[in-house]
Amino acid sequence: MLSVTNLTKRFGGFTAVDRISFALEQGEILGLIGPNGSGKSTTFNLIAGTLAPSEGSISFLGQDIGGRPPMAACHLGIGRTFQIPRPFKRLSILENIAVAAYYGQNGQISRTRAWEQAEEALNLVNLPSDPKSPVDGLGAAGLKKLELARALATQPKLLLADESLGGLDEHEMEQAADMLSLIRREKNITIIWVEHIMGVLMRVVDRVMVLDHGEKIAEGLPREVARDPRVIEVYLGSEEIKIADAQGDAGGDAGGDARA
Amino acid sequence: MNRLLALIGVLALASIPLLDIGNYYLHLLITILIWGFIYTSWSIMGRFGLVSLGHGAFLGIGAYTVTMLWNQIGLSPWLGLPIGLGLSALVAVVIGYPCFRFRIVGHYFALVTLALSEVVRLTIVALRDNTGGSLGMTPRSADTANSLYALQFADKETFFYIALVVWLFGLWVWKKVDRSMSRYALEAISEEEDAAASVGINVTRTKLTITVLSAVLTALGGVLYAQYQLYINPETVSGIAISLQIVFAVIAGGMYVQLGPTVGAVFTLMLAESLRIMVGHDVHGLDGTIYGLLLVLFIIFMPKGILGGLLSWWEKRQSPPPSAKPAPAE
Ligand SMILES: Nc1ncnc2c1ncn2[C@@H]1O[C@H](COP(=O)(O)OP(=O)(O)OP(=O)(O)O)[C@@H](O)[C@H]1O
Ligand SMILES: [Mg+2]
């Protein structure tokens, strides 16, 4: 459903995303990982239209969408969350999501329907859907859920979930992982999930793609990627080498390799 | 309940001219209604963080277009009105579109609009052969003292009712916007433009629409002012001073509540009148200084304005403090 070819983004002389190509099947979950500054969020911004590519093309459901504005990307069925949550603080939680449901479908639905869909989305992510609850009271995990619900309310076909925010504990990360697999199962939404670390992500995704300095250095099944020498090199020495923990669930002896 | 109160309020207002309160007070009331309408028009966009420091431009475009068309080619204000409103809409688009398209927001947007109000004032001054320059201009008198065709009325009662209807219209538009889906979009945009765009909101168009609406209403206020005062000059209906006064009045009255701008009109008028009476004559610049000082005080101590502040104080009183809650039964 999504096919990216030679996607490149330069900021001045600096290349943040460097000739990346990949494709995505309907219903898949792709994990996108890489260290800080490796170009993950920039890739999202290119697909979602926040940034225009310097080179390369993005095709979504047969249409060339590179350089289209974010609004157009949304109406075509691309929902995205922001790495640093960007709630609409002057609206209640429910209103945050309802406005997304209404405008995400280009005002083609009734207001009543928009509010219903907002409640659905909030139920899916376990946030309160009573009309009064303010955004103020939400912590880091709550705000991430709000981002997710807001993206879901636009009824996307492709969800770009930038979850690479610190501040979630182990349990909350597990929850986030379960939520994404639930979303895929219930709504049949295709997902790209961004994380810094492999961790819990490996348990849920179908495939992993690894970026480093804007380049794609590996792509494949989680267990294969975890064994890839270049990936190990990138992650080695960083405290983020949690590959082993994840592989405990996914099976295989990759964890041992990663440590070696 | 609220509707009943509103109805009673409107009826009470409408019966004021029957009370024979005298021309001075009627004049004050008409002034409050006209400026209350203009301030409401500003707040329609201002409440969403679209702070225009240039609404004097739209007042001036409305007032001067209609007056010039009447004086020079005898076009009835009724026909001049749509032309003046159309022109102000055009100017709003010409200024608003590039600002919104290229994401000139916050202080930068305020500065652009500030410049606009000066451009309009200087244009009026420069066209002095047609506008009378800084001496101002007077709409040519109609053939009869009361002329619907010329929109000129010798008695204040008629104008009171016109102003009342226009002011109510302004409040109605405010409410319409408040209840519309666009309100949510505008609140979202005012917080997070990127996120708003990512959920499918057409940021540029939404902002442009509300700006044009606000500009057109403000221009209508300018026309009303010109027809009532029967005298306009570049200082009173364009330029920085009047533009800032609009902002001050709305902030003072309360920008997030329907009647806030009108309370702002009452407040600024009382301020101006008491200054005039205390000092005995217009001291040029004094009111500006006092406005400036008060504005700072309001922003610091009463950011919701007079009415907004009072309403939240009242709400707090209504909901009992935590200690007053009934203790759980043993
Ligand atoms: N608008 C911009 N202008 C200039 N440089 C940018 C811009 N956006 C991102 N960059 C740079 O591009 C590089 C890639 O950034 P990006 O945000 O895509 O990384 P990331 O993989 O998401 O990192 P993180 O894991 O920290 O979120 C970084 O070096 C960043 O500083
Ligand atoms: Mg990032």
Instruction: Give the terminus-to-terminus CA distance of chain B.
Output: 39 Å
Whole-number radius of gyration of chain B? Answer: 21 Å
Order of helices and strands of chain A: EEEHEEHEHHHEHEHEEHHHH
Low-confidence stretches of chain B: 322-330
How many DSSP H or I helices of chain B? 15
β-sheet strand percentage of chain A? 15-25%
Q: Give the proportion of residues in helices of chain B.
A: over 70%
Largest sheet properties of chain B: none
SSE arrangement of chain B, N to C:
HHHHHHHHHHHHHHH
Chains forming the largest contact: A-B, 33 and 18 residues
Q: What is the 3D form of chain B?
A: globular
Determine the structural class of chain B based on helices, strands and strand pairing: mainly alpha
Q: Total helix count of chain A?
A: 11
- What is the gyration radius of chain A calculated from CA atoms? 18 Å
Please report the distance between the alpha carbons of the first and last residues of chain A: 38 Å
By CATH, the topology of the largest domain in chain A is Rossmann fold
Structural class by SSE content of chain A: alpha/beta
For the secondary structure, the number of strands of chain B is 0
CATH superfamily of the largest domain in chain A: P-loop containing nucleotide triphosphate hydrolases
- Which sequence of strands runs across the widest sheet of chain A? 6-7-8-3-9-10
Structure notes:
The complex is a heterodimer of chains A (260) and B (330). Chain A is an alpha/beta fold. Chain A folds into 2 domains: 1-24 and 39-68 and 206-222 and 240-260, no CATH class; 77-195, 3-Layer(aba) Sandwich (Rossmann fold), CATH 3.40.50.300. Chain A is built from 11 helices and 10 strands. Chain A has a 6-stranded mixed beta sheet with strand order 6-7-8-3-9-10, sandwiched between helices. In chain A, strands 2-1-4-5 form a 4-stranded antiparallel beta sheet, covered by helices on one side. In chain A, helix 3 packs parallel to helix 5 (140-153) and helix 4 (111-125) crosses helix 5. Chain A is globular. With 330 residues, chain B is an all-alpha fold. Chain B has a domain at 30-236. Chain B is built from 15 helices and no strands. The model of chain B is unreliable at 322-330 (pLDDT under 50). Chains A and B meet through helix 2, helix 3 and helix 5 of A and helix 8 and helix 9 of B. Magnesium ion binds at residues 40-41, 83, 164 of chain A.
